[in-house]
């Protein structure tokens, strides 16, 4: 691993985890977000070496086709994914939020996703999906 | 990349290799600049493992914040009580969870640029910085530490270990205002921080400090002429209007492809009034007509 | 045996729709929520070369010399391609043959591709870019249509700087102005809006052993790309296979020449080196290199009687198409035809010009001239109302198109016109009169305003080209129905809607169908996925093909049930005889029978929309086959000390004909509305002397989750004659009205008419201060 490699590159190119996307290369869109030690971070802004000894969760770790995470099911129910490119980051941001705040308000959800750009949905169905997921997960 | 084993190791390393090094706390600022091919560092020294510098402590009336404290950690620290709400105000407009989870106080300070929102707040709190090298420590005022755009007084064998400021007590208030084109992911056009110490009975301004992301240069600064106009005065609408006039002349904000310097100045004055107004509200629970 | 015979019979008699019109889950969601590797750069072959593009530094220059010799020799560089390496025609275009793939003797915009460098290591390719020596001889450049149209301006293209001039002549405007009691003039300007699909352009090409190539990319129009690559490589289109990978947003640029640029450059390298070659644009390249919305300068002159009836409308529209026309002429057509807004005006004269400049390219982008035309028209309508002393809503209602009226192109509005109902519902939901009354009394720092804008949108390609779509369907042995079309999914959800239509037509559950990725090897030419035509034209093709397949299945069932084919009814994957409900055969049994008896279960077909006929000199005639209508209100709050505008609530009402999937429809409307909001107050791609100064997402602002208003969507259904179940185009309309609605709301809030968008805080504040100063002087 080279010292200037970004966490994003290691995830995609070395570990073959393609779920984390690159949207802008300058840290302005949040599309590359992953969970590092339980905190949402932009993987394009982290040197891979600095992620050593840390637990990284990407979209691949959230659920599988056989066992979808409630957040994933909620996104599907609301047709919240349009082109799908921001969805891995949005789902991880939702997980980050719901892990800390199981009963978020609409404003909480918007705040939690405020660092991730979406061009297709206008965000509203994403907010609905997270609310539904929160309801599901509280049961 | 060089990963120091501990502080001693780091300080020794810095003392021996004084050139070509970039210190990184989390690297987001640097990665960006590497991507834009603005810089091509030889060696990166990763400070992120030095967890002993992630703290917020209150010691008598001083608040001490370790350089590796993230903005996110700062906002949830119990030492940041309701009087220190200003830090949460900064965090709320920083750019979303993924940014504040990683940005550090030390990183903000050493970047020394007008896009570091924390700096105007630390300046009005008259913060100091503690620097350490293999040979010892020194403390200096943040104001003096920031020498220019991306230039600080940090010596090649030093690291920034903490910043300290007097806590905001019952007679004082501190607020932050930020203006941008949208509500998140904003690189501020203008931001403003105000620290006010008011005699609640007489409404006399015992102390006032005002800072912006830019005043006359390219780094955050205090608007001292404006401060002098207010210091010691009894606060009322006329006094504030007068101060705003002074501020208008003190600010030397340039135009860019986006907006004119005139507009920025206009907004800066408005943000100053609003920040000041909120300080007053917090202290005496009434609005002054500004 | 049929389970509930009575229910089935009832169903047959009511013919209630089972799945069309329902908010079912999209078929493509699961892969996306799982983060499956389905986008172009997720599936690049292991041993691929990566390209970096060498781009022009100047907006207009002759290329005296392009020397790639040093770059070629650089360690790690596998290939460098220039115009000299093109075996076929050096062309990558959308409509007019005006644009090369790689510049050879002249560059016309800053950022134009000149060469491409390939290496296994992208950073090596990037370093080698600096080694390419280019000698430019600067030419005078123009950056506005007005300058470009001056008689002494240097010709950017041989045939002059006006790529297209459209004329619309209805009646006699001079007469119309004579009849008017009041004449109102105004000029309106709009900006370059950058589409910002979150996935930047990407593509890779694999050279096949038989000399053909396989292209995979983030594209909207596989067949357009196929034709383009074939020309560049001097191959027959059959030797070029194009597959669309999952595409992370498109909005227009990925339908024009840009995918041909990307895949063309990759193809040159692939063919030269016999290795797979991939090119992914950086965000910066994407924003500079792909097409964006045309800036317009629109001058309007309207004549109106005292009683509020419009008599005449004269419009001049200047569109800046940048260095190459792309689909600019078609954008100008749509803007020209819609330049009046949805109103009855007896005398109309419109001239629309699509003009070359040395700015970066403008081309397809959702709305396609509609947003620009309506921003001007709807702002102007408000101004006219003001001058007449009429409420802007009342003034509109007096003049709107209703069934039987003539449009500006003298097309008769048919019964499928939900404009009035859309307006009435939007207005009711926004509490129009009460709120405007309330807001007029506000005089604090923050002021609110409520504005309205209405639209019409001619459906499908209309005058823009032949409108057709192909669908192939095939049933596998296990009953899976493979659905293939060249229409692409890039966020719209429309292809998923086609599955709904197919399922509805065949009375089968949706999960029996598999939507295959568009692949030119497995489907006939389907045309581009643009102009919101997937549901309308693609839907008709789907109905046709699914209908044929369904008929085949019924005929087999008839054999099995020993009854006449006409006797067979179907419901819920079963087939039974009308006269004998006791007997039924299941779908699975029918498929089995078909395979045993060698009956092919395969159908393909192309639906072609009727052609639009109109006079090209006057633009009078049938310009579109049907229209979508809409009305949007916006409630804003303006901070009069900073000029910052917050949009609080928007009500968006559309006549969509028939909502195939109401939930997906809402998502599309909300998304388009937020894009329109960005267009109105914060988005502006800025050129300085032809160079884009904010080609990144830090300095080009699109709305974040904290910028969105409350959006209430109202759907009205007046089924049209073109789409399946009467569906109308709805992909593009939502982006059209936010700008004029918001600008009209700002006027209502602070009495300032902003003639230019985006209505950024500095412009709003300046307008407000001017007004205060003017009031003081008065």
SSE layout and pairings?
The complex is a heterotrimer of chains A (139), B (290) and C (778).
Chain A: H1 7-14, E1 33-36, E2 39-42, E3 56-57, H2 70-77, H3 87-100, H4 106-112, H5 124-138
Antiparallel strand pairs in A: 1-2, 1-3
Helix pairs in contact in A: 2-5
Chain B: H1 7-16, E1 21-24, H2 28-35, E2 43-46, E3 56-59, E4 62-66, H3 71-76, H4 85-92, H5 97-100, H6 105-111, H7 118-124, E5 128-133, E6 136-141, H8 142-145, E7 146-148, E8 151-152, E9 159-166, E10 172-179, E11 190-198, E12 205-212, E13 221-222, H9 224-230, H10 237-250, H11 261-284
Parallel strand pairs in B: 1-2
Antiparallel strand pairs in B: 3-4, 4-9, 5-6, 5-9, 7-8, 10-11, 11-12, 12-13
Chain C: H1 5-14, H2 29-33, E1 49-55, E2 61-67, H3 69-73, E3 77-81, E4 106-107, E5 113-119, H4 122-129, E6 133-138, H5 145-148, E7 162-170, H6 173-179, E8 182-189, E9 202-207, E10 213-217, H7 222-233, E11 240-244, H8 258-273, E12 277-280, H9 283-289, E13 296-304, E14 310-322, H10 328-337, E15 347-356, H11 370-388, H12 392-399, H13 419-430, H14 432-439, E16 446-458, E17 468-475, E18 481-485, H15 494-506, E19 513-515, H16 534-561, E20 568-571, E21 574-577, E22 580-586, H17 587-596, E23 602-608, E24 627-639, E25 645-655, H18 662-681, E26 687-688, E27 691-692, E28 710-716, H19 738-750, H20 761-777
Parallel strand pairs in C: 1-12, 10-11, 14-15, 18-19, 25-28
Antiparallel strand pairs in C: 1-5, 2-4, 2-6, 3-5, 7-15, 8-13, 9-10, 9-12, 13-14, 16-24, 17-18, 17-23, 20-21, 21-22, 24-25, 26-27
- CATH class of the domain at 425-462 and 625-778 in chain C, anyone? Alpha Beta
Task: Extract low-pLDDT stretches of chain C.
Answer: none
* Oligomeric state as shown: heterotrimer
List low-confidence stretches of chain B: none
Report the CATH architecture of the domain at 425-462 and 625-778 in chain C.
Answer: 2-Layer Sandwich
Order of strands side by side in the largest beta sheet of chain C? 3-5-1-12-9-10-11
Mind describing the biggest β-sheet of chain B? Answer: 5 strands, antiparallel
Helix segment count of chain C?
A: 20
Query: Structural class of the helices, strands and pairings of chain C?
Result: alpha+beta
As laid out across the biggest beta sheet of chain B, the strand order is 3-4-9-5-6
């Amino acid at each position: 691993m080279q010292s200037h490699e970004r966490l994003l590159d290691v995830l995609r190119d070395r570990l073959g985890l393609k779920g984390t996307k690159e949207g802008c290369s300058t840290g302005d869109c949040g599309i590359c977000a992953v969970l590092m030690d339980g905190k949402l971070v932009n993987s394009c802004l982290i040197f891979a070496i600095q992620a050593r000894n840390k637990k990284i969760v990407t979209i691949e770790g959230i659920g599988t086709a056989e066992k979808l995470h409630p957040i994933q099911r909620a996104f599907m129910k609301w047709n919240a994914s349009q082109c799908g490119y921001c969805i891995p980051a949005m789902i991880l941001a939702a997980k980050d939020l719901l892990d800390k705040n199981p009963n978020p308000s609409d404003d909480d959800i918007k705040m939690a996703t405020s660092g991730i750009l979406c061009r297709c949905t206008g965000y509203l169905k994403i907010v609905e999906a997270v609310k539904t997921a929160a309801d599901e997960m509280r049961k | 990349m060089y990963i120091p084993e501990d502080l001693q190791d780091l300080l020794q390393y810095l003392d021996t290799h004084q050139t070509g090094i970039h210190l990184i706390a989390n690297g987001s600022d640097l990665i960006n600049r590497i991507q834009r091919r603005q810089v091509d560092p030889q060696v990166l020294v990763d400070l992120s493992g030095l967890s002993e510098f992630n703290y917020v402590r209150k010691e008598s009336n001083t608040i001490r914040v370790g350089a590796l404290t993230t903005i996110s950690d700062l906002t949830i620290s119990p030492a940041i009580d309701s009087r220190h709400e200003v830090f949460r105000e900064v965090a709320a407009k920083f750019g979303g969870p993924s940014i504040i989870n990683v940005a550090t106080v030390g990183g903000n300070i050493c970047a020394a640029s007008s896009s570091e929102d924390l700096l105007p707040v630390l300046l009005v709190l008259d913060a100091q910085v503690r620097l350490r090298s293999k040979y010892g420590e020194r403390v200096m005022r943040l104001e003096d530490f920031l020498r220019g755009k991306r230039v600080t007084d940090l010596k090649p064998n030093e690291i920034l270990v903490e910043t300290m400021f007097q806590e905001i007590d019952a007679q004082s208030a501190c607020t932050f205002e930020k203006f941008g084109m949208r509500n998140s992911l904003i690189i501020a056009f203008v931001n403003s921080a105000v620290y006010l110490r008011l005699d609640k009975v007489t409404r006399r301004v015992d102390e006032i400090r005002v800072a912006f992301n830019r005043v006359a240069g390219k780094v955050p600064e205090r608007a001292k002429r404006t401060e002098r106009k207010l210091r010691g005065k009894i606060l009322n609408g006329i006094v504030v209007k007068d101060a705003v006039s002074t501020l208008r002349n003190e600010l030397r904000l340039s135009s860019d492809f986006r907006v004119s310097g005139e507009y920025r100045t206009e907004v800066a004055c408005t943000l100053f009034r609003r920040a000041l107004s909120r300080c007053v509200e917090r202290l005496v629970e009434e609005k002054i007509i500004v | 045996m049929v389970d509930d015979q009575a229910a089935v019979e009832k169903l047959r008699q009511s013919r209630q729709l089972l799945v069309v019109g329902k908010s079912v889950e999209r078929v493509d969601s699961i892969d996306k929520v799982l983060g499956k590797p389905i986008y172009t750069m997720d599936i690049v072959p292991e041993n691929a070369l990566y390209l970096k593009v060498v781009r022009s530094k100047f907006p207009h220059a002759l290329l005296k010399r392009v020397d790639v010799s040093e770059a070629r020799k650089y360690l790690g560089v596998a290939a460098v391609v220039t115009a000299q390496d093109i075996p076929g025609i050096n062309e990558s275009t959308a409509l007019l043959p005006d644009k090369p793939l790689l510049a050879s003797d002249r560059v016309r915009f800053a950022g134009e591709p000149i060469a491409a460098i390939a290496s296994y290591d992208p950073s090596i390719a990037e370093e080698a870019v600096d080694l390419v020596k280019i000698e430019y001889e600067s030419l005078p450049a123009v950056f506005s249509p007005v300058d470009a149209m001056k008689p002494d301006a240097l010709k950017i293209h041989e045939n002059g700087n006006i790529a297209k001039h459209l004329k619309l002549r209805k009646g006699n405007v001079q007469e119309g102005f004579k009849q008017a009691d009041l004449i109102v003039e105004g000029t309106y300007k709009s900006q370059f809006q950058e589409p910002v699909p979150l996935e930047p352009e990407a593509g890779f090409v694999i050279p096949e052993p038989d000399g053909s190539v396989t292209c995979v990319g983030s594209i909207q129009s596989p067949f357009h790309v196929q034709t383009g690559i074939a020309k560049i490589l001097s191959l027959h289109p059959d030797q070029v296979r194009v597959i669309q990978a999952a595409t992370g947003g498109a909005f227009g640029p990925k339908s024009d020449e840009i995918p041909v640029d990307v895949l063309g450059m990759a193809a040159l390298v692939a063919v030269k080196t016999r290795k797979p070659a991939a090119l992914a644009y950086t965000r910066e390249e994407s924003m500079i290199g792909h097409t964006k919305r045309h800036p317009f300068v629109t001058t309007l002159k309207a004549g109106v009687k005292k009683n509020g009836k419009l008599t005449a409308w004269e419009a001049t529209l200047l569109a800046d198409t940048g260095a190459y026309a792309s689909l600019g002429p078609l954008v100008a057509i749509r803007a020209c035809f819609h330049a009046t807004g949805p109103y009855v005006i007896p005398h109309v004269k419109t001239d629309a010009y699509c003009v070359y400049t040395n700015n970066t390219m403008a081309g397809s982008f959702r709305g396609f001239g509609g947003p620009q035309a309506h921003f001007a028209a709807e702002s102007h309508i408000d101004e006219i109302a003001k001058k007449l002393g009429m409420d802007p809503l009342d003034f509109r209602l007096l003049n709107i198109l209703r069934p039987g009226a003539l449009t500006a192109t003298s097309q008769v509005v048919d019964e499928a016109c939900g404009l009035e109902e859309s307006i009435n519902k939007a207005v009711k939901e926004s509490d129009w009169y009460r709120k405007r009354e309330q807001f007029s009394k506000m005089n604090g720092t923050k002021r609110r305003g409520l504005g309205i804008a209405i639209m019409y949108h001619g459906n499908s390609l209309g005058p823009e080209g032949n409108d057709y779509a192909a669908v192939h369907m095939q049933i596998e042995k296990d009953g899976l129905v493979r659905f293939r079309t060249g229409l692409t999914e890039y966020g719209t959800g429309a292809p998923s809607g086609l599955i709904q239509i197919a399922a509805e037509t065949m009375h089968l559950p949706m999960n029996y169908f598999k939507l295959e990725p568009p692949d030119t090897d497995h489907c006939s030419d389907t045309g581009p996925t643009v102009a919101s035509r997937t549901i309308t034209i693609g839907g008709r093709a789907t109905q046709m093909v699914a209908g044929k397949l369904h008929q085949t299945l019924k005929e087999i069932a008839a054999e099995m049930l020993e009854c006449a084919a006409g006797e067979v009814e179907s419901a819920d994957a079963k087939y039974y005889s009308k006269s004998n409900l006791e007997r039924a055969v299941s779908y699975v049994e029918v498929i089995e029978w078909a395979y045993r008896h060698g009956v092919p279960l395969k159908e393909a077909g192309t639906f072609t929309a009727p052609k639009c006929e109109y006079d090209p000199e006057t633009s009078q005639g049938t310009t579109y086959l049907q229209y979508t209508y809409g009305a949007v209100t916006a409630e804003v709050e303006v901070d009069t000390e900073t000029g910052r505008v917050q949009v609080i609530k928007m009500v968006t009402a559309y006549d969509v004909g028939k909502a195939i999937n109401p939930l997906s429809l809402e998502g599309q409307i909300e998304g388009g509305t937020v894009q329109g909001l960005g267009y109105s107050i914060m988005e502006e791609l800025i050129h300085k002397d032809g160079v884009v100064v904010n080609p990144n997402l830090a300095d080009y602002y699109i709305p974040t989750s904290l910028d969105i208003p409350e959006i209430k969507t109202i759907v009205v259904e007046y089924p049209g004659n073109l789409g399946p179940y009467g569906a109308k185009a709805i992909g593009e309309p939502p982006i059209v009205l936010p700008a004029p609605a918001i600008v009209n709301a700002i006027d209502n809030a602070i009495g300032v008419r902003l003639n230019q968008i985006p209505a950024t805080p500095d412009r709003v504040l300046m307008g407000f201060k001017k007004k205060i100063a003017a009031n003081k002087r008065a």
